[in-house]
Amino acid sequence: MSEESKKRLSRRRFVTLTGGALVASGILAACGDNTATTAPAAATTAAGSATTAAGSATTAAAGATTAAATTAAAGATTAAAGATTAAAPAPTATPYPTVAQAAGSTKIVFWHGFTGFNAGILQQIVNKYNTTQQKYYVQTVANSNYDDTIAKFRTALAGGDLPNVVQIYDIGTQAMIDTKKIIPVSDFIAKDNQQAIVDDIEPAVASYYTVNKVLYSMPLNSSTPVMYYNKAAFKEVGLDPDKPPTTFSAVMDAAKKLVKKDGDKITRGGVDFSLYGWILEQEHAEQGALLAEPDNGRSGTRANKLVFNGEAGQTYLNFLKSILDNGLGRSWGRHSGTTANTTIASNFATGQTAMTFESIATLRSFISSAASSGKGVDVGVAPLPKPDNAPGGVIIGGASIWITTQGDANTQAGAWDFVKFTAQPEQQSFFASNTGYYPTRKAAYNLQEMKDALAKYPQFQVAIDQLHNTKASPATAGAVFGSFSGSRQNVEAAMDNFMTGKASSAKAALDDAANKENDRLTEYNSTVK
Amino acid sequence: MSAGITSNEAHSSTYRAAEMARTIGLYILLIVASLVVLFPILFSLSLAVQGDTLAPQLVPDFSKLDWSVFSQAFNQEPNLGRWIINSFVVSLAVTLGQLITSSLAAYALATLDFPGKSIFFVIFLATLMIPWEATVIPNYLTIARDLHWKDSYQGLIVPFLGSGFGIFLLRQYFMTIPKDLYEAAVIDGCGRTRYLWSILIPLSRPALGTLAVYAFLNTYNQYYWPLLITDSPEWRTTQVGITAFRQTESAVFNLQMAGTLIVMVPTLLLLIIGQRQLVRGLTSGALKG
C-alpha cells in the first residue's frame, strides 16, 4: 500500500517536474531577450500592444484606435521593415497594423492567401492605398494559404457574401471563371481606358491570365522555377561556376563530377529533387508540349482531355530516374503536402546538395541560409534545365487578384481602383524588391528600388531573362482547367511510383495519373454549363 | 534462509537496495518514455530557437540560442493572446453546451416513456451518419447570411451545441444504471429533475468526462469552420491564427514553431493542473460501477 502510494507520488512529482520545466522555459522565452530588439521594433511593439489592448477592450479594434496613433504606428512599421530589409534578406517578422477606415469611405473587402512576411508586405501596399485616398477603404482578410482561400470562396458562393477582391492562385483560374461571380479585369480596363497597363504587363504573365483573349484577373505576384546550384562546389570539381549546365545531359555530366559518396551513400547529391507536379508542367512548356487539349484550354473551347502522359512528361521522368539509377543524386519524395522542399533547401544551404530545382521566390532564403550555415555555399541561379534540343520556355506561377460581382457599382468601381493601384509600377517594384516575385510590370524595372534589388541579388536577373526568353504559345501560357487545383497530388503519386519502381515505366505511371485526372476533369466539366 | 545472515537488519538492507535499484530503473524508464512522448515538443522548441534558417539541426547550437523568437511571434501577431482566449471561450462553451443538451436528451431517451421515443433516437443517431462536409454550407448560410454572426462568439459556438454522439454516449451509459435506483428515489420523494441532478449526473461522471474531453478537443482543433466564419484577425482561433506564421514561399520554421508552442502552453497547463481530476473522474466510476 505504502509502496503503491510512493510510486504514485514519484510519478506525480515527475509529471510536475517536467511540466514545471516546460512552463518555466515558456515563461523564460516569453520574457527573454527584450534587450536585443532594435528601436523601430520596440516602437512597433508598443503599437502592437496598443492594438491588443484595444482589441480586448472593445470588439471594434480598428475603430477604437485613433487615426493619429495608427498613422504613427504605420510609419513605424515602414521604418522597421526598411531596416530589416537592409539588414537581413531573410524573411523576418514584420508587424503590420492596419490603418483605420476614413469616415464616409466605401469598404472593399480583400481576401488573400498570404501569411508571414509576404502578408506584411501586401498590407503595407494596402495601407498606402488607404492613406493616399479617402474614397475607398480596403480591408484585408488573410486566409492561411491559397488552397483555403479558394475553398472559403467556394463556400461563400453559396451564401452570396463574397469579398470584393480575392487573390487566387494560378491553377484556380478556370474554376474562378466558372463561378460566374467575377467581373473580368478586361471590362474595367476597357471602361477606364487603361490599355496601357495591359500593354506593359510582362507578356508571359499576361498570357497566363488571359483565357480566350480576355484578361480575367490582375496578376499580383508571379514566379518561375529555376535551377539553384552551388558555385563553390562547381569550382571545387573544376566546373566553370559561371557556365551552369542548361540541358538534361549537361546536368547529368556535371552531377557525375559533383556527387560525393561514402560507400554507396550519397553525402553530396549532384542533383537532388522533389517530385513536384509544377516542375513537370514546366518541362512540358520547355518542350513546347501541351498539358491539356485543346490548346491548354485557352482558345475558347474548355479543356476536356489531359495529355501530360505524352512524350514530354516521360522524358522528364526518365531524366529524374536516370539520376537515381546512376547514383548522381537523391529524390526526396513528393513535394505537395510534405517537407521535401525543406529538406532539399536545408541540404543545399549546408553544401550537401550541389544542384536543385525550386521557385525563384525562395532565392532570398536560400542566400541567407547559405550564409548563416557557414559552409561556404555560394548560391548560383541557372535557367531550369530542359531536354537537349528543346525550344525552351517556362510557365509563370503565383497568384492574381479577381474582382467579384459583390456589391453595388460604386463598390465594384472601388475594387477596380484598388486592383489598378496594385498594378502600378511603384507597387510592383516595392512588392518584387521586398519578396522574391517578379514585378508584373515592365516599367517597374526602371525604378531605382527595383534596380537596387537587382544589384543586390544579381541571380534574380537569370530568372528575368528566362521569363523574357520564353516565346508566347499555348504551351508556355500554361494550362487552364477546372479541376487543376488538387491535380498535382495524383501526378506526384505517379512520379513517386516510377521513382520507387512500383510502376514499370514512366508511361505506365503517367497513364495511370492521367486516367484518374481525366475522370476528375470530366466530372468537373459535367457540373458546369 | 542461508545460514548466518538471517538477521532482520541485513534482510532489510538488501530489500532497501533492491527497492532503490527498482526505483532507479523505473526513473530511467520514465525518462526515456517521457523523452519519446515529449519529442515533438522538444523538437519544436529546438527549431524555434535556431533563428530563421532553412537548415535547422536536430539539436540546436547551445551557444547561440535565439529566444527572441517568442517575443517576435507576439510582435508579428499582436492578436496571439486573443486567439488563445477565443479558442478557450469557444471550446469551453461548446463543451458545457454539449454536456447540458446531451445529458438532458439522453435522460429523456433513457428513462422516460413517451410516444415516438425510438423515432427520436433514430433521428439523433442518423445525424452521426451525415458527413460533416455536407452540413458546412447549410450551417454557413444560417450563421453568416441569415443571422449575420460572422466574427462573433455565437457564430463559433452555436452550431456545435448539440451532438448526436454525445446523446448516444450518455443514453447508453444512463441505460446501465438500474431502474430500481430511480424507483427507490421516487419512493423517497425525489422528482425527475432532482433525480437527474443529484443521482444520475454524479453517477455518470466517467461518461460525462469522456464526452467533455472529446468535445473540448474537437472544438479546440477545429480549423475550417473558424476560417469560414471569421474574417477579422481578432476573432480567429488559434488553429487558424497560427497559420499566419507560415511563410508562403520558403520553409523557415522558427516563428511557426514559436507560435505553436505559445498556443500550446495554456492547454498544457490545463492538462497538468486538471490531470488528476480528469483521471479520477474517468476511473472512479468505472471501479465502483
Mean pLDDT of chain B: 86
Task: Give the oligomeric state of the chains in this entry, treating copies of one chain as homo and distinct chains as hetero.
Answer: heterodimer
Distance between the termini of chain A: 76 Å
What ranges of chain A have pLDDT less than 50 throughout 5 or more consecutive residues?
1-94
**Pairing-aware structural class of the strands and helices of chain A?**
alpha+beta
Classified by CATH, the class of the largest domain in chain A is: Alpha Beta
Share in β-strands of chain A? 5-15%
Net shape of chain A: globular
Task: Give a written overview of the molecule.
The complex is a heterodimer of chains A (529) and B (289). Chain A has 23 helices and 17 strands. Chain A is an alpha+beta fold and 529 residues long. Chain A folds into 2 domains: 97-223 and 397-459, Periplasmic binding protein-like II (D-Maltodextrin-Binding Protein, domain 2), CATH 3.40.190.10; 225-394 and 486-527, Periplasmic binding protein-like II (D-Maltodextrin-Binding Protein, domain 2), CATH 3.40.190. In chain A, the strands form 6 sheets. In chain A, strands 1, 2, 3, 4, 7 and 17 form a 6-stranded mixed beta sheet that branches. Chain A is globular, with a radius of gyration of 25 Å. Chain B has 289 residues and is mainly alpha-helical. Chain B folds into 2 domains: 8-70, no CATH class; 79-245, MetI-like fold. Helix content of chain B is 72%, strand content 0%. Chain B contains 13 helices and no strands. The two termini of chain B are 45 Å apart. The model of chain B has no long low-confidence stretch (mean pLDDT 86). Chains A and B meet through helix 1, helix 2, helix 5, helix 6 and helix 15 of A and helix 1, helix 2, helix 3, helix 5 and helix 11 of B.
Task: Compose a concise summary of this entry.
Chain A has 529 residues and is α+β, with helices and mostly antiparallel strands. Helices cover 52% and strands 14% of the residues of chain A. Chain B folds into two domains: 8-70, no CATH class; 79-245, MetI-like (MetI-like fold).
